[in-house]
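During the second half of the funding period, the structural biology subgroup turned its attention to how the target accommodates small molecules. The most pressing case was zinc ion, which had performed well in the primary screen but for which no bound structure existed. We therefore specified the complex as follows and requested a full 3D prediction, including the ligand pose.
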Amino acid sequence: MVISILNSSTFRFMARLVMVSTVLIICLAMMPIINFSQQASSPPPISIEKVKDNIYIIKGGSGANCFFIAGRKHNLLVDAKMTADSFREMLAEIQKTSPLPLRLIILTHSDGDHVNGLRGLQEKVKILSHLKTYQEMLPAVEQMPELKDILPTETYEESKIIDFEGTRLELKNFGPAHTSGDTIIFIPQSRTAIVGDLMFYGRDPLIHKHKNGTFFGYLKTLQMMLDYRPEIEVFLSGHAEAAGRKEVAELIAGLKDKENKVREMMAQGKTLEDIKAAFGPQPPPAGSQVRRPPLVEIIYQELKDRK
Ligand SMILES: [Zn+2]
């Protein structure tokens, strides 16, 4: 009797244990799937806000912020989101604000979150980028052949001036910075610049060594943005809110401070490992989807290469 009671309560206990652990295992197994499918299927909705004059920022969707300029008869788009769906959704939203045909797309640089959405382009539109951006997109075409038809149709080097239906755009490349083909679009009459991934605040900027980006080039480019005449007041970028001159100056000061600390420690004979440890665990640079070296490591290498 005692034995059978024990047996039946043991049985009930075992059965409950199996049930609880089965539920737990199923839940654990489903968690990444649920998260992944939420991320993959529902990026934040596309939203459009006027920045200044005829310049608009397009947030949401998959990929970086994009921008458009409404001309008299056409729209001009800057960057192209990351997926065909987000690109098409963006074009539809633009039509609600400015129902004009699209005449030109300018790419700020070659990163997937700025260009891969071009797969959703269904009409023939001129695509303009820096020559190096075109060249940096070629390896991606090997992996994604559907990008072949939407490579930039026109390239420039150093600078290019465009009169877009009364809005003067001055495209500049100040040498390798975030990548080797960064374009900054200055819009002098609005005292505004669209700077791609050249402006981050609150976190380290991302420098793509595999696309010949450089820390010192990044610093130089930020300074050129501040020195530009007429003086620019609004800096629009792919992964941050609109910034003013103060934020750009603070970013430069913060980067120079980091450079000086690395320089000092190198003069004291510290190794890269010592320096990295002294800076503590560094959050991954903004916008990085794959593991990239922290900024202090890039600064260290560039200072070392200069010697
Ligand atoms: Zn980028």
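Two results from this model are relevant to the next phase. The two ends are 87 Å apart (CA to CA). Residues 2-41 form the longest helix (40 residues).
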